[in-house]
Amino acid sequence: MSAGKWLLPFLCHAAAALVACPSHAHVLHSARVSARAPVVAVEDGKPAPSRGGVRLLEWIPSQQLLVTSARFAWNTLWKVMLSELAPQSDDGDYVRPAPQMGTGATWPAELPVVSGRYHLYLGNACPWCHRVAASARLRQQLLAKTGPPQPTQFLSFTRLVSDPQRASRGGWVFDSDDPDPLCDAADLKGVYDRCTPGGYSGRCTAPLLVDLETSTIISQESADIIRMLGQVSLNPSGRAVDLYPTALRADIDATCKWVYTQVNNGVYGCGFATTQSAYERAERGVHEGLSRCDELLSSQRFLCGAQITEADVWLLPTAVRFDGIYASFFRCGRRQIRSDYPNIARWMKELLQLTGSDLFDLDAARRSYYTDLFPLNPGGIVPSGPSAADLGFPVGDGPVEDATAFSWRSV
Ligand SMILES: N[C@@H](CCC(=O)N[C@@H](CS)C(=O)NCC(=O)O)C(=O)O
Questions:
Q1: Residue 368 in contact with ligand 1 by CB distance below 6 A
Q2: What is the C-alpha to C-alpha distance for residues 310 and 55, in angstroms, rounded to an integer?
Q3: Which pTM does this prediction carry?
Q4: Is 126 a catalytic residue?
Q5: Where does the GST C-terminal domain lie (predicted)?
Q6: For residue range 284-343, what is the model confidence (pLDDT) as tens digits?
Q7: How far is CA 381 from the centre of its chain?
Q8: Which residues partner with 161 through β-bridges?
Q9: From the candidates 121, 192, 268, 326, which is the catalytic residue?
Q10: Cβ(207) to ligand 1 under 6 A?
Q11: CA of 342 to the centre of ligand 1 (A)
């Protein structure tokens, strides 16, 4: 039987019950309640108001018809919404779109390294923004929002707010307490338009690195931004933190590759899968990847040895969101970091301290995932935890200094 044949009677019956006969539904409802009393909770001697709905089953000839039609309608809508949110392969796997523009992973030679000219647009919930912010923090390049600038800091940044209802495209808007410094845009689309002669078409993603002086986009790809920021420094001390030391490059590249595929993108593969087998593939990969990280961290301080590298910066955003968000929201919590990956848990607390726990707000991120990605959670209920406090995360502190955690390069 065609889908429309199931859907139509269901919608007609539902509409009739809702629109034409609300009082009928109420009568039926009252009759049922009195016949089966007591079913209503009594508080202070008064029955609590009952909200039994329109009692569709009284109107629709068969429960099977109701369930089949509702499931079909719900599933169709979910698949349509999810294909807009997250492109899919024919097998139901999530396929992350490729970035649309950027200058590659090399800092453009024509851009002088001066303080205040380059600006990052970053959203708290976004893991790709988080890894850019963490790398810039570790290299002491990020200008603080308040207080006098330090000599090493050359990047200003704006905190984007996630609000797909307010944004004209994508999900990012500005709030009045952290406005856009480029053109006072209302949303990130306004920034993309301003930087694109003739107007911008495509996804308006964060992170975004722009040159405020020429109103041009330098890059919208987090991996490239991390790499290119490692090639420039304002550090007057003659040495700078090196997250990509020459001797470790092959190991860092290889580690980043599987961390990205299995863990960073793997959790999205779980959450955005539209078939059971696609979900199971992604979920297996996530825990294989996490087990491999945990094993490495059982014998060394960081993923590629005794010092922090880009590989640690890549793992961090997914690790800190794992128990509090992805485990439940993306259904990959078969094993959790706090109980099953003790070495990642130890490493994560250290990374949070070194990057500064004020860089990321887990509880705000959880609210954002659960409400803004509404096709995955149409009711919009946000779980109460586990919160940052439940997980024992440091909260709101600046970065802890520890020179032994880093490789250094001469500048
Ligand atoms: N390749 C990009 C992906 C960034 C990305 O997907 N950002 C998301 C937020 S987590 C975004 O801005 N999405 C808005 C949209 O797709 O419209 C990177 O790693 O920098």
A1: no
A2: 57
A3: 0.88
A4: yes
A5: 245-373
A6: 999 999 999 999 999 999 999 999 999 999 999 999 999 999 999 999 999 999 999 999
A7: 17
A8: 173
A9: 268
A10: yes
A11: 30
Does an H or E element contain 336, and which? none
Helix (H) / strand (E) element for 410: namely strand 407-410
Q: Which of 82, 128, 208, 217 to mutate to test ligand 1, by most ligand atoms within 8 A of the CB atom?
A: 128
- Whole-number Å distance between alpha carbons of 161 and 173: 5
Cα separations in angstroms, 121 against 53, 158, 192, 249, 305: 45, 5, 11, 28, 31
Å from CA of 61 to ligand 1 middle = 47
Place of tokens 């955005």: 272
Burial class (CB in 10 A: 0-12, 13-18, 19+), 143: buried
In 221-359, alpha helices (H): 222-229, 249-258, 265-272, 276-297, 310-321, 327-329, 337-340, 342-355
CB 276 within 8 A of CB 264: no
pLDDT per residue over 81-135, tens digit each? 888 888 889 888 998 887 666 668 999 999 999 998 999 999 999 999 999 999 9
Cα-to-centroid distance, 44 and ligand 1 (Å): 52
Residue indicated by tokens 């863990």: 263
Distance (Å, rounded) from C-alpha 329 to C-alpha 369?
8
Q: Give yes or no for residue 318 CB within 6 A of ligand 1.
A: no
- Rounded distance from Cα 206 to ligand 1 centre (Å): 5
Q: Which atom of ligand 1 is nearest to the CA of 171?
A: 14
For residue 12, the number of C-alpha atoms closer than 13 Å in the C-beta half-sphere is 9
